[in-house]
Design a protein that fits this description.
The complex is a heterodimer. By secondary structure, chain A is of the alpha+beta class. Chain A has one domain: Jelly Rolls (Sandwich). Chain A has 1 helix and 8 strands; from the N terminus they run αββββββββ. The longest helix of chain A is centred in the N-terminal third of the chain and has 32 residues. The radius of gyration of chain A is 17 Å and the shape is globular. Chain B is globular, with a radius of gyration of 22 Å. Chain B is built from 12 helices and 6 strands. In chain B, the strands form 3 sheets. Chain B has a two-stranded antiparallel ribbon with strand order 1-2. Classes of the chains: A alpha+beta, B mainly alpha. The interface between A and B is large, with 50 and 50 residues. β6 of chain A pairs parallel with β5 of chain B.
């Protein structure tokens, strides 16, 4: 009987993982539609659990090219309290974030790159709440 | 009671199998007799010098060929069909090594075709991509029918670009999840070489400053590319490829890159934060160095497309 439980549990988890993946792909599709006059390059999917002590974050490295205007658009998944905070970083320095000083968010972060090199996109959730989100990296057609 | 449990498990099994096959497109597994074996089993299980996670990070870093195509178009350089790799030899590509490298080449060409809105010429290219992706068991991520419809109806080029690029991103993600980063690294290498080929051929005809600078600053990417390929150099094919890419790297020794630091500025425009970087990058590349880079790229690209 224990084995039956194990098989059943595995199937339920498998179904849940499959559904979660499909949901995050749907969110990417929806988010990509909202990037405006920009061309999609990459997407970053993040799902983080809540933590008040040390809010978790996800970091993605990317090489950005001189002379290109990039745009990072963020979409939060429904059903989670967390709102994604995106920081564009060069080494340890934050170049910009979508979180304004008054606690509100800008719709997207644009970056006029003047130096080809490694940058990183850091994503966490405001106040360490649980959240799921997608960030789309695109370039603006000039 | 036991019979009810078995019924429940049976129903759950059917539902689970149906759901998962619907999500994956049903093509992720290789059959061996009556038993289906997951792709992970076929992954490269040799010890890696760097972790799978670090590999993925490095592969992610390498810029999209779409950016190179966009740069070429923005300079006003006209489209040139003769720059594209022929799709006639697809059936001769009989190993995963050759297939993955050339899949990268055709993927880059697809970005170039889309960027110039040459949608009528996309079908041959897509057919080659679909064929190679199927051989590599990642064809389920390439939405051939949707791309074909968008291309032939010349409708919504942004959607065409999005589906094309995201198809490759999804293939890459799946390969890495199933421990097949060796294939992923070859696709990225093929894309990079083809992107460089397109750019260097344009620079050869008309050396536009932005294009030459983009070619020169790929010096930063070369080390990463060599690092991921070296991971698999126990395979003689990879070893040969590493030596070819190292020849390109050698020609880059004459490229000098210097920086001037500045403070970034930020302003909000229509709800979007715009960051303007005030650092400056100076690139110094002589005509002689550029010509040697162009020749080395031509040689490596020729070897890849005539395998």
């Amino acid at each position: 009987m224990k084995n039956v439980f194990k098989i059943f549990l595995t199937l339920i988890i498998g179904l849940h993982v499959g559904t979660s993946m499909a949901q995050s792909d749907d969110l990417v599709n929806v988010c990509a539609l909202g990037i405006g006059n920009a061309t999609y390059l990459k997407d970053y999917k993040v799902k983080l659990s809540a933590s008040s002590v040390s809010p978790p974050s996800a970091k993605f490295n990317v090489i950005l090219n001189k002379g290109t205007m990039y745009k990072i658009t963020v979409c939060n998944a429904e059903g989670y309290a967390g709102q994604a905070v995106v920081e564009l970083m060069e080494n340890a320095a934050v170049l910009g974030t979508n979180l304004k000083a008054d606690g509100s968010f800008v719709t997207a972060v644009g970056f006029q790159c003047q130096k080809t090199g490694m940058y990183s996109i850091n994503i966490s959730f405001k106040d360490g709440k649980e959240g799921a989100a997608v960030a789309i990296l695109s370039y603006i057609n000039m | 009671m036991r019979r009810n449990w078995l019924k429940l498990v049976y129903v759950a099994f059917i539902a689970g199998a149906f759901s998962l096959s619907a999500c994956s497109g049903g093509g992720n597994k290789k059959k061996s007799g009556d038993i289906e074996i997951p792709d992970e089993i076929f992954g490269d299980d040799k010890p890696l010098m760097i972790s799978q996670e670090a590999m993925g990070d490095i592969i992610d870093n390498i810029s999209s060929p779409v950016e190179m195509a966009a740069l070429l178009k923005s300079t006003g350089v006209p489209f040139s069909q003769k720059l594209l790799a022929s799709t006639d030899r697809v059936d001769d590509l009989n190993t995963n090594f050759k297939q993955a490298l050339n899949l990268g080449v055709y993927g880059c060409d697809l970005g170039y075709l889309n960027m110039y809105e040459k949608t009528g010429s996309v079908i041959n290219n897509m057919t080659a991509i679909k064929s190679l992706a199927n051989e590599l068991r990642i064809g389920q991520f390439f939405d051939f029918n949707t791309i074909k419809r968008l291309a032939t109806n010349n409708e919504n080029l942004d959607s065409l670009m999005y589906i094309s690029v995201s198809s490759f991103n999804n293939m890459d993600e799946y390969l890495r999840q199933t421990n097949r980063s060796n294939i992923s690294s070859l696709i990225v290498t093929g894309m990079w070489v083809e992107g460089m080929y397109l750019a260097t051929q344009v620079a050869k005809e008309a050396p536009n400053k932005e294009v030459v600078e983009r070619i020169a600053d790929q010096k930063l990417v070369l080390n990463d590319l060599i690092l991921i390929l070296k991971n698999y150099k126990a395979d003689s094919n990879f070893d040969v490829l590493v030596k070819e890419i190292e020849k390109i790297k050698k020609e880059y020794e004459g490229v000098k890159i210097t920086y001037e630091m500045g403070e970034p500025e930020a302003k909000e425009v229509d709800g979007m934060l715009i960051i303007v970087q005030n650092d400056k990058q100076h690139i110094d590349v002589s005509d002689e160095t550029l010509n040697r880079i162009i020749t080395s790229i031509e040689e490596v690209r020729h070897k890849i497309i005539s395998m």
